[in-house]
Amino acid sequence: MKAWILERQARIENKPIRLEEIPTPEPSDGEIRIKVHACGICRTDIHVAEGDLPLKKSPLILGHEVVGIVDKVGKDVTSFQLGDRAGVAWLNHACGECEFCLSGMENLCTGASFTGWDADGGYAEYTVLDGDFAYHVPDHLAFEELAPLLCPGIAGYRSLKLTETKKGQKVGLYGFGPTASCVLQVAKHSGLEVFVVTRSQKNRDAARELGADWIGTYEDNPPTPFDAGIIFPPAGNLVEFALSQLKGNGRLILAPVYMTPIEINDYNNIWLERSVKSLAHISRQDGREFLQIAGEIHLKTQIEVFPFDQLADILPLVKGGKVEGNAVIKIV
Ligand SMILES: [Zn+2]
Ligand SMILES: [Zn+2]
To answer: How far, in Å, is the centroid of ligand 1 from the Cα of 64?
Structure first.
């Protein structure tokens, strides 16, 4: 099969990945093989390629927003059949035995492995994984539309769950990119009032179109305090600001993987049992719940689709913020 291989980390502009012909993987017992149709590009791919995250195996195939069709099924697989549509996300495997796995928090599994980091991912014609860690995906969404749901989509959904907000409550979204746009649609579907705070006029227009109840900039005063908030940009200086806009007992969720330093200077802004929690990884339960809702509400994503053989040229564009919405590589 054809696959993009990373052997040594380097700046993405120097094209550390190359397209090669390698043996097509065979599924072991319990595994399925997926003929990959599309794979979304995530910034984490760039962090692994450039060395911000350590290289755990070499050669490595990146990519953890994978969708395609099951074309081979290993012994003892009961969850998938030949010809099923299937998706693969960041959590590639969890141990099932640690304190977190045993208490329904496999996203924090201490023995977890991740797609496109510990295990080969989706920038290839085929990928194999444990059938229990693949997802059934909605039938009526195109593969290119589904790909970004597997990472920003599921992660955004988990951040919304962590707010513990209920129907009728108010949630503030700080920053409005592709992840926040998924969160807004699910939040509206759940009956929440959604307040979007973002600088860019274009993003404010996008939020309005998707049904935000209030949209403002960081200089505007929201009409009411929120029950919870979610910060999407990796800007630590937003934390105290966002806390100050929450009610007592308000929960503030930090969605980014990295964040600039956080300082809380005025204790009044976190007083009244307000709390801050980071989001880390996803569980299969998050993925299943979110994909079901995404199918029901026909969740809209903004995508830009590129051909498979151009991946090395597209990654620098994604790094430089030159792609609108989610970049998706079409393989078939
Ligand atoms: Zn990702
Ligand atoms: Zn575990």
So the answer is: 6
